[in-house]
Structure formats: C-alpha cells, structure tokens
## 1
Amino acid sequence: MADATDLVAEIEALEAKLAEAKAAITKRFIGQERVVDLTLSALLCGGHGLLIGLPGLGKTRLVETLSTVMGLDGNRVQFTPDLMPADILGSEVLETGADGSRAFKFIPGPIFCQLLMADEINRASPRTQSALLQAMQEKVVTVAGETRALTAPFHVLATQNPIEQEGTYPLPEAQLDRFLVQIDVSYPDRQTERDILLATTGVAEEEAHQVFTPEALIAAQQLLRRMPVGDSVVEMILDLVRAFRPGDPSSSERVRETVAWGPGPRAAQALMLTVRARALLQGRLAPAPEDVLDMAKPVLVHRMALSFSARARGEDLGAIIDSVTETLLHSEAAA
C-alpha cells in the first residue's frame, strides 16, 4: 500500500512540474497546445518526434524553447542536399603532436548532445538521413570501427517540409518507424495569429526558463513506465494496431483495400508509452481508452503506407485511421 501511495505522490509531483514546463513553452510557442503536448510526450517517453509543417510555423522556435525548458544540451543541424554523414556524426583527423608524432583524433559531430534538432531532415540525401538510424535506436554511433555512446537522455526532434515541395527526399520506412510520434504543425487560427503578432513584434519577447534538468527528465521517463495500464487499455491498443494490418483477420475490408503495410509491434509499444504521457499531461494517474484514440493518429500515421491504387484514388491515411478508430470506439461501447 505504501508503494502505491508513493507512486501516486510521485506522479502528482511530476504532473505539477509538467504543467509549469508547458506554461513556459506556450509563452514562446503560442496557441499550439496539441503540438506542445505531443512534443513533450515524445520526450517523456524517451523517444523522438517528427514535426511536419510548412516553413515559418515556429517548428525551430519550439525545439529551441524545449531545449531551454527541459535543461538539455541542444544542437541544431540544418539538413541540405550536400550534407554528409560525417557532418553529423563526426570524423577522425590526423593530428601531428609537438614531437612530430602523428595520431588519429576523433572530432565529435553535433549528434553528441542531448537534444538534436534535425532541421528540414528531408532535404538531405538518403545516405545522410541514414546516419541517424543507429543513434535513434541504440543511442550509440559507430565511426571508424569504434562505437561511442551518446549522452543520456538523447532525443531527436526533426522538422520536415511537406513532401510536395521541390528538393526533398522521402524518409525511408525504417527511419520513420524510429520516430515515436508524427506531429503535424498547421496554420494558427486568426486569434492565435493575432496573439503571435503582438508577442513577437514588440521591443521585448518572452524568455523561456529552465524547469527540468537532464536527471529529472530521466527520472520522469522511468516514472512514466511505472504508471499502471488497465487491461482494457492494453486490449484496445492491440485491437487498434492489429486492425491496420491488411493480412490480419480483424482488419476491415477498407483497410485491406487501401493499406499496403500496417504498423508493427513498435507501434503498439509507442502507444503503450504515449497514452501514459497523455494521462500525465492531463493530470491523471492512469491512461484511459480516450487516450488510445487520441494518440492513434500521431503514433500510427507514419508507420503505414497506402497501396498504389489507394494513392491513385486520393485516399488519406489520416481519414482511414479516424474511420477505423471511430468504428473501434463504437464496438467497444457496444461490448
């Protein structure tokens, strides 16, 4: 009983700290609470986030603010077509000592940080994009045959321009799967845009202040994994993920006709973590079915692909996910 009481007290203390962090972020990144919640969820789960939106919507500002508020050592890499893997990971150079001796010395790249902003990641070539694969999954990098550990915590927040724009390369499926959530950054509404104008075009702007430390963030990530998840939520996660696999008996006819391949077990793992994060950010002690439904699209949309015929018909993955989750909600309610 004491353990349960301690867990509740720890969760409540973390919820208060998260509320303070969110307030600090939204002073500089105005009016996009959904985007802030999803980005904080990615950090709380120990994962990475992919922010997708047109230029000028504040994606870079958000990541810079997060770095300050969460107390993380951050670096920014502007991805361009001529960027090379060594520009991210680092490289060995031949160094001559004072006595004339020569030895190779490793010069760390910007990836050796706690929060890496990969700006416009889809403007780099696939070879350079793949330089992040090992780091994102295993938290290590291998250069010149030697494996080097990255500083904990390590997170990648990548921004991506919509793929319709010229000069972009689609991210490979293996890399997309390593992003915990896809975060769509849309245009602000009129009132929000008015608030942005007034807040950012005056003599002074709001400054972010530090709320977390790296150690506090690691402790929060560990606490999140201790949050209880009810059997009904676990079953709902399994039902949802399996419903989007075309070869699964539980999938609908629409999914079999439109989806080329569906989400794997990593998607179910991501949902198990993100529903806890959403409950934390909303001040609750355990996730509920509505958390699963709310996190379905950010977790699943980049882990699926439309078939060729579905793309030709102009089908939309987001609409398909909404339709299936709505059907699942009704079936759960009926049961």
## 2
Amino acid sequence: MASQAQRSASSRTVPARPNTAFRQLRGRLSPGEFAAAVRRAAREIGEQVSCDARYVGRVESGEIRCPNYAYERVFRHMFPGLTLPDMGFAPRETVRGRGARTSPDSAAPLATDPDHRDTRIQNCEESDVLRRAFITGGPAAALGLTGLCPAGRTDPPVPAPAAPQGHAAPLAATVPGPRTAPGARAGATEATAVEEAVRRIRLLDDRHGADGLYHRATQPLRAAYELLDAGAQRRAIYDRLHAGAGELAISVGWLAHDSGRFDDARSHYAEALSTARVCGDAALEAHAFCNTAFLARDAGRPREAVRAAQAAQQAAKRLGSPRLRSLLALREAGGWAGLGDRTGCTQALARAERLFAAGPGERDPEWMSFYGEAELRGLTAQCWSALGERGRAAEHARRAVALQDPHFTRNIALFTTELAGNLAAHGTVDEAATAALQALTLLSRVHSARIRAMLDDTARALRPHRSCGPVGEFLDRYRTAGAPVGRQPA
C-alpha cells in the first residue's frame, strides 16, 4: 500500500519541461506557419487535425507530453524516420497511466490533446498572428533567394529571345548573414535586401505565375521577420524593415492565393496587417486589406470582401493616391458583384473610373505598378461577369488583353482566359475557342491554379459545341496538354 507521502507526491501536478527538440524541428517557421504545415501534411495522409499556433505552443512548452494517435501519424509523415522520443515527446507507455496525470482527479492523461475530440473543426491561426507582430527566433543567417524560381526552370527571369520558352533562371540575392557580435542589429544592407526580395518575387510572378514559387518564397519571408525581431541600428531602418517584411508577407500571400492555397494566403495577409498595425503604417495596412478583399471574393465570402475593401479605403484616405483608391473601389465593386448587388457594384465602379481618371501621382505605392487601364478593364470585366452580364464583361476583357503591357505575362493569360469564358457563356463559341487556344498557349509559360481552373470551366462550357472547328481544335489541345489543365499544384 502506498505511503501517505507517495500518495501526496502523485497528486501534485507534473511539471512541464520545454520540448526543445520539437522547437528545433519547427525551424524558422512561425507557430502559425508550422500549424498550417501540419494541417497540410494531415490532408496528405487523410487525417484531420485541428492544429493551430496555440497547439504548437503547448507542445513546445511541454504541456503536451505525447500527441494523440492522429497527430503522431502526421508528425511521423512530416519527419520520416523519427520516433516520438526523437521529436522530444515522452514514450506513450509512460504517459498513459495514473502517474502521468496532472492530478489524481484528472479524467484524461496529460499526453492527449483535449481538442482532438472534434478534429473536424479547422482552427485558423489568424488570431495568433494578429496578437503578435514578429516571427520569433534569432536573427536570420541569410535572406536567400537562390533558386527562387518556378520548379525545374534554370534560365534568366526575363528570358532573352533565344532562351527556351517558359523558363526562368535561378534568382540569386542574399542578405548578409547575422552579425556574430552580441547585440548586433540589422542595418541598411539588410533593409535593402528585404525590399529587393519583394521586387524579385513580384517580377517572377508577373512573368510566370505563382505555382512553383510559393514554397521557395517562404524562406526569405521567415528570414525577413527574424531580422525584424533582432532589431535595427536606427529607427529609420526599423521602419524600413517593418514595411519590407509586411510587403514581403503580402507578396508571399499572393503566391499562395494565386496557387489556390487560400488558408495560407489568409494567414500571410493577416501577418502583414498585424505588422502594419504595430508600426502604424497606413500604406501597408491599405495593401493588406486590399489583398484580403480580393482573397475573400475569390473564396466565396463577398460580404467580407466589401468590408475589407472599405477598411482599405479608410486607411488610404490619408495617403494622397487617387490610383490606390481607384483600385480599392474596384475591390469593393467585386464584393458587391458577388453579393448580386448591382447598385452597390455600379456605384463602386463609377468611383473607380473617376479616381483612375485623376492619373498617376508621385504618392502611388510602388506595388501598384501593375495597375493600369488594362487591370481596370480586367477587374471591371470580372464584376460584370459575376452579375451575369457576360457580353458586357467580354467587351472589357477584350480591352484588357489589348491594353496589357507585354511584361505582365500572367495578367495577359488571366485576361485572355476571362475573355474566353465570357464569350463562351455569351454564346460566341468560335471566338471563345480562339481565345481559349491563346490562353492554353500562355499557360505553358504561366503557372497559376486560379487561371487553370477558369480555363477548365471554359472547356466544360465549350464541349457541347465540339463540332465547331475552332472548338474542336481547342478541346483536342486541351485534352492532350502535358498535364490536366485544372490540376491543382502538389
């Protein structure tokens, strides 16, 4: 029979010991980013886990000494060859008994995750992201962009005429490594490198689309926030790092958005918004809300799109850029169109046109280089399409294709695909097939899950008209393309 002292000892709470091994496995990912990676890995093996940043924190703090069986399978999938003890967990057999409980009255072992009873619920990490401004950890060893290009591509990002069609070269640009002296902080060199990373990612996206870029772009994003967390030599540098890291988060979020990873995009945009709020950067806040509105529209949340666009316009009021306000009015119009509110949509479109007519200005944000009349027409086409006026939408899409700068290959593919879809819905099948053929050719160079899905819809709409010559030609080429056009990236 146990002694009184033994019984008393067994009733005390087991002290938590930080799981440093698991923290090392997380690497430079933020808790929210790592939680998203866990959920993706779970889907790959058919599991459902409600992992969020809070769960990651509980594991690393030692509160969860051993994961439940679902999480164990996911972690083993993510880190093949590692056992639970290798990951810093206690062996399951040591935590299943009475001694592993926090008290004699506990109803479940400390090892198990109390949230596992409803793993169907996907907790999102935005609340955690909005509570903190930075990714934790030491200063980045380097903000590396080596190999930041679509998978399998090896030639220059702006190909010479003789270069193979559809290829881009490795992009090499690194931020100098961290200072080894204690207390060393980032300087102008690091701030400049973060800003350059944003420009290079946007250049590659303009040329080649998001697929294949997203996972490569997350590394410089993590490094940028680590530099920010390490501090800066002067307030001006710190402000530049804030703005640069926030813009980089938006750029990486857009890559996720355009490649169909909506949950990841939402997380990155939320992190950018958090950064903007912490440093009081109205321009960054407007940009983050702008992209959030666009994402909400594409994700089927039009009311959220309207509210985010209106919040962006509020932030932009003091920035002195009519062109920015024009784009934000278009984002609002897209939300109203998704709600089927013709009045709200047309009013926002009229406001966008009026503000655009004011012309470019010195205070226009750098990231808005894509926003010219072609983009105005393309976004207007999307609004009329959502309202069911496909003929009117086709007119705007046709102008968007004609006006687009050749540099923006991805947007040419987008507007051409929009044109094909609107023509097909309007019944102009021959012209639709011709445009669809052009879009299919462009998609050999541009990798965008969003555009591919749009072309898939056009192909389905055209199938009943196969007997028409151009339609049959498009459908044959569509079917014999190297990979299914609508296939989502791995």
## 3
Amino acid sequence: MGVMKTSDKLVDEKMIVASAEKALADIAIIHKEVGKVIFGQESVIEQTLLAVLSGGHALLVGVPGLAKTKLVTTLATVLGLNSSRIQFTPDLMPSDILGSEVMDQDENGRRSFRFVAGPIFTQLLMADEINRASPRTQSALLQAMQEYHVTVAGQRNDLPQPFHVLATQNPLEQEGTYPLPEAQLDRFLMQVDVGYPELAAERQILLETTGLDEAEANPVLDAARLLDIQHLIRQMPVSEKVVDAILSLVRSARPGNGNAATDKNVAWGPGPRAGQSLMLCARARALYDGRLAPSIDDIVALAEPVLQHRMALTFAARAEGMSVRDVISSLVNQIKG
C-alpha cells in the first residue's frame, strides 16, 4: 500500500470540509423544522439529535406530558425514517416486540412456519415508558440494540438500517415501574433529562397548540443521507488532547483508579463503552456547532448525558443526599483545569 501523498491528503481534507458544510446546512434545516413543533427544550433537542447523528440510541427521562413522544415522532418525520411506537406495559411479551412464528397451511395440507415481523423492524423505534415492562421484555430489546438483529426460533433476522431506539422513561419514584438493568442502560448512548419548559416556551405551547391549526414538521433527510452524515462523523479527526480528556474523565469515574472521592462515593463506574460514546457524541456536537473537530468543551457538555446512567453511588453517598450529577460535575472540573 503506497504512502498517501500530500496532494491526496489535501483532496481528502477538502472532501471532508465540503461534506461537513453540506451536513451543517442539513442540520440547520432539521433544527428549524423540529422547532416548528417543539418549543424551547433546546438542550433536549440537541442531545437527542446528537445521539441519532452518532448512530446510537437515547433514553429520554422525565415526568409524563413533556412532549417526549412528540419529539420522537417529529424526529422520525424530519429525518425521513419509517418509525413505529411500542407502548410498554406490564403484560407486554418479548414476541410483541420482536415478532413470532405462525403456522401456515397450503392447499395440499402441508404446514410450514412463517415469521411475522414485530414493530422492532423499523428505522426509528419509539419505546414509550420502557420501564413499565417486565425485565424479561426489556431484555428482548437488548440484542437488537447492540447487535442490530433479532433471533426468533433459531433464525437470525437483520434489522433495517439505520436502526435507532429512542426510549422514554418515567422517573423511578413513580408507581408501577421496573428499573432498567445496568447492561441495558449501557446500550443507550445518552440519557437525556427532560425538564419542565421555560416560561416563554410554555406560553408559546399554550398559544400554538390549542387553536385549530397546529404546525407540522416537514421531512429534511432520508435514511441514506442520515447514514452519510453518520459516516462523516466517524471520519472527523479527534486531537490527542481530547482523547486524553475522555480517558481521564471516564477512568476517574471508576472506583479503584486513584480518585479518593470516587472510591468513597461510587459503587460502580462507566465501562469502555462510555468512552466510545463520548468520542462519537463529541464529534457530532462539533459538527452540530459548525466545527470540524471536537474540543474539551464538547466533553464537558456531554459528560452528564453520557455518564450519568452508567454509574451508581454507594449507599453511604446516597444517604448523604449526593447525586450522580454532583460526582460527574466535580470530575469535569478536574479535566477543565
């Protein structure tokens, strides 16, 4: 294999810059279309979009009625993806998500099994109130989210591309919920916390959504274009300084790595997938902001949504009223310095 000549490298860089500019224009239109329907919630929209642009899944956590479902259906429209929605309930079975084998009989009386695909065979799956289903059903999503195929009756069935799960979850204090297993939480690129809207946004919601006409978002991309942008994000360069900051942050969040506060307060910390997630999301955030390479600021901004669902506090730390966010915040201050 020959050495890349400087002229080739320049052509390559020019192509990446041109692709990035085109992607940036697309992202600006996506933002405008989503903003027609979802008012305020800037960071929620940004983080959810970053998860999809990075090729991953997102968990949206908040009390009912904060337009989480509306955001997901709007994104499906704007990104030009086919979508389906599963309302998770305590009696939902794995086959209700994955699909099942049914027996057919032909005119000669010969019987055979046929696979009937479940709602998971879509490009954007909305898993509504995911923590209302039993752990057995929640785990039916696991293989699909990680391996992009499902196995039913010993047969492998590949999922469409791209495939994203945007799940919503009620805060665990609410009745009738099962906490998600740690292994499944780790499959989510980010946990996006959805809070109550600001006053101005809530005023706009009142005025815009109670009349005869409601604004509708228009498609901006299609699946092929989204895959192109995801591919571009994976090509963006990441400086040694940013890679070191990611490693330093993720490793300092694990007990037994020389950080006294973490050893005292953290029961278990983020695995290597947290670093991979930070790396991808930082590139996506840079592109979202019109930059060609991520900076330490991107790591600082993404630390909480990427790490908070991948670590747990000790009983003693929880008893003292400490939160995972407090721990992440103090670790982030160390990489800033």
